């Protein structure tokens, strides 16, 4: 999987894998790294993968970067499970690449915005190795009814930061909150924060992400 890589000045000992939203690319969130103002001493590498290009049904079959197809805007069937599973497998491979380079899984944060967050929330609860944490921004959950039977205990205690815009018209806030409730009902350590914004990120959220990363990886 191709990606944009942002390396610290010293040898990295931690990594954030950040998955973009529909129609974007790894370049979309790469400029956020300097805005986070993480100290060099943290030695955090950032990886921003590019989703593959595929036809997206709700956009008239137009090809664009997407982690999965969206066949309907219906709450229960928005995310195509087969595409989610395929992308989650690609991200697992990317995680393994970082492990092979000397960064253990418990020093890896899985982050995602919108579609990317769907992949993060699907993979992390089912992942067989402990992660450092999960950051799920302006997103929702694919097939939440499957979580109870498919979740493993490995990552039940890791911090999961969920954040959403109160005026989000792309992924309505109730979808994000439903994902948060599903996680907590299944014993996951999720937190929920809202911001006065639409389907984007804001400066206060960036500041909160920075503080969270310092706590999780510092």
What does this protein structure show overall?
By secondary structure, the protein is α/β, with parallel strands linked by helices. It has a single domain, classed as Alpha/Beta hydrolase fold, catalytic domain (Rossmann fold), CATH 3.40.50.1820. 30% of the residues lie in helices and 22% in strands. It contains six helices and nine strands, in the order E-E-H-E-E-E-H-E-H-E-H-E-H-E-H. It has helices at 32-36, 81-100, 115-123, 147-150, 173-185, 203-217, and strands spanning 3-6, 14-19, 44-49, 53-56, 62-65, 108-113, 133-137, 160-165, 190-195. The protein has a seven-stranded mixed beta sheet with strand order 1-3-2-6-7-8-9, with helices on both faces. A two-stranded antiparallel sheet has the order 4-5. The longest helix is centred in the middle third of the chain and has 20 residues, at 81-100. Belongs to the AB hydrolase superfamily. AB hydrolase 2 family. Keywords: Hydrolase. One of its GO terms (molecular function) is hydrolase activity.
């Amino acid at each position: 999987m191709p990606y944009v890589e942002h390396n610290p000045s010293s040898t990295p000992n931690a990594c954030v894998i950040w998955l973009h939203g529909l129609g974007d690319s790894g370049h979309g969130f790469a400029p956020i790294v300097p805005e986070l103002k993480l100290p060099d001493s943290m030695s955090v590498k950032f990886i921003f993968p590019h989703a593959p290009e595929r036809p997206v049904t709700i956009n008239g079959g137009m090809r664009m970067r997407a982690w999965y197809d969206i066949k309907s805007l219906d709450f229960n069937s928005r995310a195509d499970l087969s595409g989610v599973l395929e992308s989650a497998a690609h991200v697992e491979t990317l995680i393994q690449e970082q492990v092979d380079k000397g960064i253990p899984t418990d020093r890896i944060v899985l982050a995602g915005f919108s579609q990317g967050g769907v992949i993060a929330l699907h993979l992390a609860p089912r992942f067989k190795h402990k992660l450092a944490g999960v950051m799920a921004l302006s997103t929702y959950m694919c097939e939440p009814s499957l979580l109870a039977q498919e979740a493993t205990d490995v990552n039940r205690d890791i911090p999961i930061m969920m954040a959403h815009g109160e005026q989000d018209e792309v992924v309505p806030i109730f979808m994000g909150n439903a994902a948060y409730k599903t996680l907590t009902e299944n014993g996951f350590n999720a937190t929920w924060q809202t911001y006065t914004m639409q389907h984007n990120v804001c400066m206060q959220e960036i500041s909160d992400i920075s503080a969270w990363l310092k706590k999780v990886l510092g």
